[in-house]
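TA notes, week 10

Several of you asked for a full example with nothing omitted. So below is the full record: structure tokens for the whole chain, then the designed sequence directly under it. When grading your own attempts, check the secondary structure regions first.
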């Protein structure tokens, strides 16, 4: 399947994987996913928070725990992932899950913080940021996190070798085989960080970003500083 249309990979990666996603993302990142999500939560503020492409709600629940008096909404285009998210979040009274496509987002509400983990590489930067900005309160923040291809040559060697191992392991986990094969190609070809910085600045957001875990991922923050 063509990397030129990364959004088309979502169906390929996330069909019949909702029940195993939480374990796979924890195991394949050696637990770093939880650390990255903690960094995201540390950058959130406000009483209304939107989690785009919330998946099974891992990050959504971390947000709800940190901000128990905030209204937290999780949006995802996969009904099976939302089913798991709702089941795992039954004890949280401040979470609402909604079935929508992030690039076609239509909510009758604005938010102080809009966040997403792992969505940038699949979406068109200008389309997603324009949708986010229309749902963002004055002085609100947009926080995006995703994988990046390490810049250090020695780290790249380790990174590439690790995905070779994952590809072999994928033969024993058929539902994840396609993701383990195609994901490294997508990450290597993705220019999501540069694209989203440009898209954020184009709509007047102040931006900052930071790499994590030897440059294997990044968190980008866009701040709306006006009062419009």
């Amino acid at each position: 399947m063509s990397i030129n249309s990364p959004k088309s990979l979502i169906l390929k990666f996330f069909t019949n994987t909702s029940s195993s996603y939480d374990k796979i993302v924890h195991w394949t990142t050696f637990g770093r996913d939880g650390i990255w999500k903690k960094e995201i939560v540390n950058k959130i503020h406000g009483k209304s928070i939107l989690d785009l492409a919330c998946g099974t709600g891992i990050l959504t629940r971390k947000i709800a725990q940190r901000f128990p008096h905030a209204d937290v909404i999780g949006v995802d285009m996969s009904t099976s992932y939302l089913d798991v998210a709702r089941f795992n979040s039954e004890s949280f009274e401040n979470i609402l899950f909604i079935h929508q496509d992030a690039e076609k987002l239509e909510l009758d509400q604005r938010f102080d913080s809009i966040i997403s983990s792992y969505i940038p590489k699949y979406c068109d930067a200008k389309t997603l940021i324009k949708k986010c900005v229309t749902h963002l309160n004055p002085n609100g923040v947009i926080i995006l996190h995703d994988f990046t291809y390490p810049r250090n040559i020695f780290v790249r060697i380790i990174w590439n070798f690790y995905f070779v191992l994952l590809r072999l392991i994928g033969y024993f986990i058929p539902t994840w085989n396609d993701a383990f094969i195609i994901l490294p190609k997508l990450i290597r070809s993705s220019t999501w960080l540069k694209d989203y910085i440009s898209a954020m600045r184009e709509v007047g957001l102040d931006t900052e970003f930071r790499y994590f875990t030897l440059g294997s991922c990044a968190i980008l923050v866009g701040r709306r500083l006006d009062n419009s």
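The longest strand covers residues 136-147. Use that as a sanity check on your answer.
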